[in-house]
Automatic annotation (TrEMBL), chains A, B:
UniProt family annotation: Belongs to the peptidase S51 family.
MF-aspect GO terms: dipeptidase activity; serine-type peptidase activity
A family per Pfam: Peptidase_S51
UniProt-listed Enzyme Commission number(s): 3.4.13.21
Protein name (Swiss-Prot/TrEMBL): Dipeptidase PepE
Gene Ontology terms: biological process: proteolysis
Protein source organism: Flavobacterium franklandianum
Amino acid sequence: MSKNIIIASTSTLHDGDYLEYLLPELKIHFENCKTILFIPFARPSGITHEEYTAKVALAFAKIGKVVKGIHQFDDYSIAIKNAEGIFTGGGNTFLLVAQLYKKDCMIALTEAVKNGTPYLGTSAGSNICGLSMQTTNDMPIVCPPSFKTLGVISFNINPHYLDADLLSKHMGETRETRINEYHSFNNVPVLGLREGSWLKVTGDKVVLKGNLTARLFLQNQIPVEIESETDISYVK
Amino acid sequence: MSKNIIIASTSTLHDGDYLEYLLPELKIHFENCKTILFIPFARPSGITHEEYTAKVALAFAKIGKVVKGIHQFDDYSIAIKNAEGIFTGGGNTFLLVAQLYKKDCMIALTEAVKNGTPYLGTSAGSNICGLSMQTTNDMPIVCPPSFKTLGVISFNINPHYLDADLLSKHMGETRETRINEYHSFNNVPVLGLREGSWLKVTGDKVVLKGNLTARLFLQNQIPVEIESETDISYVK
């Protein structure tokens, strides 16, 4: 089987409920799944695995899916291997990656996604689809053993991509400046995915979805805006 | 000798030149120094050590100080040990910390600052004064061997502290949310230093300076605003 992945910038739009804007797409994406395995390790705002899983179950119930948290299983690798569909939610990417390594999930998850298990990532769960988590926006609240992630696409994701506020008097780095700093030391392309955008990966094909453009950063090149529905499989 | 440190949120205010707002303070802080050793490792926007040092030299020339970049020395530890005064500039904290470890500067720098060598940090250079760099705002563009930093104060710094924009429709985490996530896993106090604020450390005394309040986060407590001129030596 071939890859079947949705990589979303955010779980939630400002004017919507959790996962709401994605539900029509998820109904198709997970159409052959009765249950979804949820990976809650990123724990947004420090909520527990149980709380996070309950929140996700509520959203997926709207499209008739049952959600099980990976923390409910004895063997995480087997849970991933046996999953009909997998969702990794957002939160803190350092925490997510640290836990994926600690619980020996990284290899199992990479294999499952490469072998065609339908996968959804939002925010931190999207970050880990890239070659590394090095273009996360999150704070290093814990120290993972490595920044290397699933690499099921051939570039890195910057979720919640934010254009510079030209009226701001704040002197902290803009998102674009940060990504340019990344490219001072790394040559992996970076896709800035704005909230409401997602990537649909089908086999080797990677297509931008949603109403917005995305911003593509290649090392030593001027960033370009990618239109929705563009096939960006060439980016590597 | 006892500690003599300035820990500034930012090098530059929106309406000012590089280090301009701090120069009156720096004139006193470095009054016994003819030369300042500059640590350019954080390389904002990926600029070279030479470019960064030239920029800093230009600012310090206004108060009659000569600046030497640490990269110009053969032995970095000895350069630090012999320095009359030290300035670590901003940029990327992961890069700064990775380089400080790689170049065996971490112990020498801790010792020098603890022994009273006048030190100035801005942004990333302030982040490293805390117990760890885990409350940085920067992207993990390189992987340091440890997040542990100088620990010349007994809490962590969040520089460029930014209040939530209540009108924003962006769904990325606010700074306060990020710091609260840090406190889900760590009990080190965090001081959010707004741009224009700095800490003046004299011996064991730590005083907030500048016109603004700072936001103090203690684990499991509601954050509080600290007034300028407050002695916060009790925070640990």
